[in-house]
Amino acid sequence: MTITEKREIAEKIKELLLRLISDDESQESHSESKPLEMLTIKECAEAVKGLSEHTIRHLVAQNKVPFIRTGQGKRGKILINKSALLDLLNKSA
């Protein structure tokens, strides 16, 4: 491997590292501006008037709203990102 090739590789690595650093900084600033708030199905129904627990369960079953399931199997608690739910409802309104 020649010195020129080594320098080219080093320059590419430098560019990738700079890109990674800038991506990390943009993600940190984005996450600080909007705190993550996870709600249970019952809390979602209380937060949005006119929306029933049954409807929220259908949105989860149809994968229309992102969610995570805590615990194991079907008995695990379903948590929904509040801002994602509100965004979905605002789009459909």
Description:
The protein contains four helices and three strands, in the order αβααββα. By secondary structure, the chain is mainly alpha-helical. The chain has two domains: 1-33; 38-92. The protein has a three-stranded antiparallel beta sheet with strand order 1-3-2. The radius of gyration is 22 Å and the shape is elongated.
Shape: elongated
The counted number of beta strands is: 3
* Quaternary state of the chains: single chain
Number of helices: 4
Structural domains: how many: 2
Order of helices and strands: HEHHEEH
Question: Summary?
Answer:
The chain is mostly helical and 93 residues long. It has helices at residues 3-33, 41-47, 53-61, 82-92, and strands spanning 38-39, 67-70, 77-81.
